[in-house]
Amino acid sequence: MHPSAAENARRAFVEHFGNEPAHIAYAPGRVNLIGEHTDYNDGFVLPCAIGFGTAVAIGPKLGDLIDVMAADLASEDSFSADSPMADCPDLEWTKHVRGMAAVLRDSGYQLSGANMAISGNVPQGAGLSSSASLGVALGLALKAQFGLDALGMVEIALAAQRAENVHVGCACGIMDQLVSACAQEGRALSIDCRSLETLPVAIPSDVSILIVHSGVRRELAESAYNDRRQQCDDVTRHFSAKALRDVGLDQLLAEKQNIPDVQFRRARHVVTENARTLAAANALSRGDLSEMGRLMAQSHDSMRDDFEITVEPVDRLVALLQSAIGPEGGVRMTGGGFGGCVVAILPQAKLSDAIAAVKRDYRTPDGSEPLIIETQAAGGARLIV
Ligand code: GAF
Description:
The chain has 385 residues and is of the alpha+beta class.
């Protein structure tokens, strides 16, 4: 069995810095059940946390330097708590770490010297939010180390999003960080991405969540993601609205002739996905898996045809899982798109059939068996020590 992320981070801290960490913070990755590309349009999402995450072990250090090591990458960095972004190496992980320190510092939180070791087990490049889990775990570790009592979980999520937007260069919304920070075990989180209100939705105990990685790497995902954001903003501007959340389907259809076709279809995805996501939170809370399945199928079709973020192997995987699951339960691509994972929600009794069908009928583009993860909805970020 693999040691947990927290145990790996602790062990790396002890080996590297020669003493026990004062705190270990852990934050999970997530899978989104429905509500894709709606978060940055002030819309609705329904993700849950998964049983994989990132741990940050932290301890005191005299002076102003924060020394940090990424145990899984055998890579190190050292920066001033007073000017975290000065001479930042062009490495994604260091931008996340320094970016989080910079955002907290710019928000008025006092940081000073510290030692940190990081380890995570979220599958990389799978669309399961390894970055968000890193940002949130860092926020919680820095809060514990420096006694930042005013820093609440929602604020940690917002800081992690800001660090990604400003210092990593990814224009992501708030979904991933917020569910990593605030998830509850056994529940999905219905999130209003405008008010940031969250409503836990219990997942019935006889229902399973299955994640299958298509094996398609999410190449060019960042620039395509930013293009989609831009196209949504174009339509928002067309209506002089605050966000696409405020544009109704009738209103959008009435303007079809006056909006370029691509932009129209992007907006139609977002507007209809918001309605599906609210309906899905309702269906899940009633344990209505056939309605869930119907909404997830519509969501996938909309991502494929209107938002154009699926790829052929992902579409194939969704079709084969849907026929293994049948009408009680659903499956769709999950996350930002252009590869990555699909998520299925199904009765536990169907789980072994669904897994067998994937193993029998699906191969990743390099010919291997795909990564299959059966998960329960996990709890959100927490201090382990
Ligand atoms: C990525 C982003 F980080 C999220 O904010 C969200 O927009 C998602 O893609 C698409 O729903 O995970």
